[in-house]
C-alpha cells in the first residue's frame, strides 16, 4: 500500500485553515487573558501554527524540487564528437 500525499492546493488549504484556527486562539487569549485561553493559545495554538508552517514549508520544498527536476530533464544531453 502506497502512502498518497494530498495535492499542493489541498495542503495549502489545510495549512491556511490551521493558521486561522491558531490565530483565533492567540487573539482569544489576548482578548480574555484568563488562564484557560492563555494555556490553550500557548499549547494548542502554537502546535497548530507549527504544523501549518511545516506543511507550508513542505509544499515549498516539494515545488522547488519539482521545478529543479523539470529544468534538469529539459536540458539536452551533451553531444560527444
Task: Please describe what this structure looks like.
The protein has helices at 8-31, 35-74. The chain is mainly α. The protein has one domain. The mean pLDDT is 91.
How would you summarize the topology of this molecule?
Elements: H1 8-31, H2 35-74
Helix pairs in contact: 1-2
What is the number of strand segments? 0
Structure annotation, total helices: 2
H/E order of the elements?
HH
Radius of gyration: 20 Å
Query: How helical, in percent, are the residues?
Result: over 70%
* Main sheet specs: none
The percent range for strand residues is under 5%
Distance between the termini: 47 Å
Structural class of the helices, strands and pairings?
Answer: mainly alpha
Q: Judging from the principal axes of the Cα atoms, what is the shape? A: elongated
* Mean pLDDT level: 91
Quaternary status of these chains? single chain
Domain count: the total is 1
Low-confidence stretches: none
